[in-house]
Amino acid sequence: MELPKYFTLNEAKKLLPDLKPRIYKLMKLNKTLSLIQSVDIDSDDPILDIDLAVMDLNKNYFKKMYLFYKELSEVTKLGAVVKDIDEGLVDFYSKYQGREILLCWKLGEKNIDHWHELNTGFNNRKHIKLLKKQN
Asked: Is 115 exposed, middle or buried (0-12, 13-18, 19+ CB in 10 A)?
């Protein structure tokens, strides 16, 4: 397991222009995969040639799965941690006063304005201004 990459707030913010389209792509691929998984082809009619349809569906599924994990790998290489694909939640490891924290960003937010402790999540995030006030 690789050690996390640590970011200053400015370093993490600089990643957003590259990160946003990647998260959109991950969300779209994830929805496509869910849709393909929901397809249930069942036929008792031996005349219907559903084998080809099933093979095409499986081929499409595995192609999308490959693209999904390839994109997720690229996001991970940037140092970002995808916490929830459906919500577009991404964290960045950071350090504040000698302790590890997570800078928290959600797709749709213009900037990284929140953070939370490692053992908490999105529901317990706090505004970045609170870090500045603690100095």
From this structure: buried
